[in-house]
Amino acid sequence: MFKKGLAILSFLSFSIVFAQKITIEKKDFVTLNATEFVGFDSFRNYFYIKDNVIYKKTDVELLQYQNLALGKIAKVDILNPLKVIVFYEEFNAVIILDNFLNEIQKIEFSNLETPVVTSAMGISGQNKLWLFNTLNQQIGLYDLTTNQYQNLGIPINDGFQYYQTDFNYFHWIDKQNNWFTCTIFGRIIANGKTEFATKSKFISENKMLFSKDDKLYLSDLSTNKTYEIEIVEKTFQKFYYKDQILSIFTDQGITNYKITLP
Questions:
Q1: CATH 2.120.10.30: does it fit domain 10-258?
Q2: Sheet of 46-50: strands edge to edge?
Q3: Where is the signal peptide (predicted)?
Q4: Is 70 helix (H, G, I), strand (E, B) or coil?
Q5: How many CA atoms, within 13 angstroms, populate the side-chain half-sphere of residue 196?
Q6: Would the pTM count as exceeding 0.70?
Q7: What is the DSSP letter of 132?
Q8: Strand, coil or helix: what is 12?
Q9: How far is CA 93 from the centre of its chain?
Q10: Strand pairing of 20-22 and 225-229?
Q11: Are 123 and 106 in contact (CB under 8 A)?
Q12: Is the dihedral of CA 75, 69, 89, 50 positive or negative?
């Protein structure tokens, strides 16, 4: 959904003192004792990590999954709630779970016919996974049905400091704060320069959320406008956005807000 080339993003570095403001409406608060909040799925089930255990909190039950043999969880991808992907970077492996967090598939990339060492992972379309292979510094697609891996694009020699994936695109920000996109066909799109923030989320082809100095902002690249989102939290660990719901995760739990983006 981010396939269009984007304008230069240097406007993010402009003073945001003059940013227009977006008001939000509090919906509810969910108590959550977690180390990391992953997000919520289309059914409003909450996923989080505590003590290296993945939890799925539904309205009626609390499910969990852990795999002590594979070390620390590097990432959990819940883009497809019926196929949860758990990435264990230390052991170069991925576990696939069903919607009840039962293990249904294990992939050890070191054991492939052509081994891959991956430092980034995300679910793609057509039963495939996005991977970044550190052996050749290339993005690729791994087919979960055929167990075949395909390199895409050209090597990314400088690596990246942030990445985000969806079914069709692999986005990354390099160490010079340049934003690039790789399509499932291997086309690389240079989108421009952005102000990097460790808490960032691209939410459409021209809008991104980011935090700076414990404040939350929306940048609209199509209009070159930046908006401050008026949250009451003075500090927070993470934010998450989906289906016009903004979730703010703090030590106490999750506050959900209804938000209408301009």
A1: yes
A2: 36-40, 46-50, 53-57, 62-65
A3: 1-19
A4: helix
A5: 14
A6: yes
A7: E
A8: helix
A9: 18
A10: parallel
A11: no
A12: positive
Q: Would you kindly state where each structural domain of the chain is located, as residue ranges?
A: 10-258
**b/e map of 102-135 (b: 16 or more CB within 10 Å)?**
eeeeebebeeeeeebebbbbbbbeeebbbbbbee
54 DSSP β-pair partners: 49, 65
48 vs 215: CA distance, rounded Å = 23
Provide the token pair at 252. Answer: 């106490």
Token pair for 206? 């021209």
Q: Which tokens sit at 174?
A: 């390099």
Please give the structure tokens belonging to residue 110: 């070191």
User: pLDDT tens for residues 9-43?
Assistant: 444 444 444 468 899 999 999 999 999 999 999 88
For tokens 């009626």, what's the residue?
A: 60
Place of tokens 């108590």: 31
